[in-house]
Structure formats: C-alpha cells, structure tokens
Design goal:
single chain; alpha+beta; Aminopeptidase; seven-stranded mixed beta sheet; 7 strands; 31% helix; 23% strand
Length: 221
C-alpha cells in the first residue's frame, strides 16, 4: 500500500469508490474533483493497493478565524469546489477522508492521515482541523444528546468508528458542529470538531504557500 497525489485520471475511480462508501450521501461531482485539483493539488491524496485506489483524503488551506464559529461542510468547502482555499491561511482543513470498506484494518486511514501531517509540516502550517462524522451516534441518539455521546467516546465508554480512530491519530476533540452534513443520517447531521497541532510549526517563518504567493505578486509587479 502506498499514497500519492491525486491526478485527473483518478476521478472516475474516486467517484465509484465514494458512492460505494457513502451510499446515502451524494458523492462528489466530476467538476468538483477537477476544481479541487486545480485549486490545491498538493492537498489531494489517494491510497493505492495493487494499482487500485482504496482511499482518498482531500484538504484545503483556510484562515481558521473566518470559520471558527459553527459552519457546515458545504459552506467551508464552497460546495466541494474548494474556492475558499486561501494561501494566506495557517490551517489545513480536512474536507474528506474515505477508505474502501473491503480493505479496512490495513492501515490505509493511518497512511492518509500521515500524508496530511507530512503536508502540514512541509508547508509550515500551524494545524490540521477537520469535522469528523459520528456514524455510531444514530444507534444511541434516542438515549443521549450528541455532546454526551462524544464525551463517552472520549472517556472510553463508547467506540465510534471515526472519532475513536481520530483520537488514536493524535487529534484533540474540540466540540460539536451541529448540522454539519444535513444528509448524514448516521451522524444525525452532526460532526466532531477536531484539531492536530503541528509540533514543527515555525511562527517566525511564512508558510510555503505564502512564500509562493508573495513571489507571484512580486513577478506581477
């Protein structure tokens, strides 16, 4: 298994895989994936096993101060186009991760998260922020509010397929984003806000995206 940057040739395979992973949630459209690759190609990763795509991680860079309040997936990703990508930001925002359910347990999710962490370090970004689904919540939603569900996962009383994994990956739980994906019935539309802080971040240096942007501005002048 290996990870690499996503290419335009991967789009058809990614659309098929995402539809299989999320049968009740509308998958990406072709134009959205193409736009993501145009806007921020470094942030798009796929996992490969035997020359077959088995996982995907998509991300963009944002100014977190603009989005720290409650928001939806549609708002922060500009409806999946990543038009909100901002090279002046310090936050890598995880928009999507999915893994082929036929090959779970082989470290694919970990490899994709590792790829994101490597990108965060490489670009001198301050952190990774994401809003993870809570697919186990619908089973107990009648018994407890979503905040208590998340706390019980943190305490080890319950296990959630996504949040428990993210905690093992070194992310910190920061709260609930209500109505994050309205059509996500398993999570009752909610998500867990999580963060990973880059231990190598140098606040005295610009990010590589900021450096590239400044060079472009100088050339234009």
């Amino acid at each position: 298994m290996r990870t690499r940057s996503t290419t335009h040739k991967d789009i058809d395979e990614l659309l098929r895989l995402q539809k299989a992973v999320y049968p009740t949630i509308a998958p990406w459209r072709r134009d959205q994936l193409a736009q993501q690759l145009e806007v921020f190609p470094q942030g798009q990763l796929v996992a490969i096993v035997d020359d077959r795509i088995v996982g995907c991680a998509s991300s963009l860079v944002i100014l977190w101060d603009e989005w720290a309040d409650e928001h939806t997936w549609k708002e922060i990703t500009s409806a999946g186009t990543f038009d909100n990508h901002n090279p002046n930001g310090f936050t890598l925002y995880g928009a999507e991760v999915f893994v082929d359910p036929r090959v779970t347990g082989r470290g694919i999710g970990h490899a994709l998260y590792d790829g994101r962490r490597a990108l965060c370090r490489q670009m001198n970004l301050r952190r990774i922020i994401a809003c993870g689904r809570l697919p186990g919540y619908h089973k107990v939603a009648a018994q407890m509010p979503v905040e208590l569900y998340a706390k019980k996962v943190l305490w080890g009383d319950l296990t959630d397929p996504v949040l428990s994994f993210q905690l093992r990956e070194g992310f910190r739980y920061c709260g609930i984003m209500y109505g994050y994906i309205p059509e996500d019935a398993e999570s009752c539309s909610h998500a867990a806000l999580i963060v990973w802080l880059n231990p190598n971040h140098n606040p005295g240096k610009p990010t590589t995206l900021q450096e590239a942007y400044d060079k472009e501005q100088d050339i234009e002048l």
